[in-house]
Amino acid sequence: MNRVCLVGRLTAKPELRYTGSNIPYARFSLAVNRTFNNAQGEREADFINIVVWRRQAENVANYLDKGSQVSIEGRIQTGSYTAQDGSRRYTTDVVADSVQFLDSRRQNDNRNSEPTPYDYQEPSYSTPSASANSMNNVNVEDDPFADFGDNVSIDDNFLD
User: Fold this and answer.
1) Sign of CA dihedral 114, 115, 118, 121
2) Helix or strand or coil: residue 14?
3) CB 10, CB 64: distance < 8 Å
4) pTM over 0.70
5) Alpha helix (H) ranges present in the chain?
6) Less Cβ around it within 10 Å: N or C end of the chain?
7) Residue 25 reports pLDDT greater than 70
8) What is the mean pLDDT of residues 55-71?
């Protein structure tokens, strides 16, 4: 079985092209964070080439931009070609059957209207003060679990 599920952020705006028979396709690279830190304590990412076809390719090209978060379901496809220097080159792509947009429309609109630094650095979070009102002032956009992908639940008995 050849199935792939990925969640990550686009490294650049998708390129929309058309085949000789006028079938649209889009190519882009997806940065997917690894679940562990390297020896220096830094989180690394893998950069995976994605290809999407037809109507979904047009949607991806029209509505996504660099830094957009998406979920991809598809399959791995390998290929090869002869480069201009005569050497044989091998390729590995994920052919997406499904692309789900994970950012809100507001996040995408903000991303398209103002420059944002998506260099895949871990965000820094300040520790809230111990005051009773600190929990009321939490900014949802500063959620350290925003890229986690699943809901995080902590049992009240955990602290006892």
Assistant:
1) negative
2) coil
3) yes
4) no
5) 54-63, 105-113
6) N
7) yes
8) 96
Q: Using CA atoms, how far apart are residues 30 and 121, in angstroms rounded to an integer? A: 15
* DSSP percent split of the chain into helix, strand, coil, nearest 5: 20, 40, 40
Rounded Cα–Cα distance for residues 80 and 157 (Å)? 56
Cα(131)–Cα(107) distance, integer angstroms: 30
List C-alpha distances in Å: 104 to 60, 64, 96, 141. 14, 11, 21, 11
Q: Residue 48 has which token pair?
A: 């995976």
Question: Hey, how many other C-beta atoms are within 10 angstroms of the C-beta on 118?
Answer: 16
Amino acid at 30: L
Closest CA to 107 of 27, 39, 9: 9
- Residue partners of 67: CB distance under 8 A and separation at least 6: 9, 10, 111, 116, 118
The residue with greater pLDDT, 57 or 41, is: 57
Helix/strand/coil (H/E/C) assignment for every residue in 108-126: HHHHHHCCCCCCCCCCCCC
Token pair 């220097």 is found at: 85
Q: Please provide the size of the chain in residues.
A: 160
Domains of the chain, start order = 4-159 (2.40.50.140)
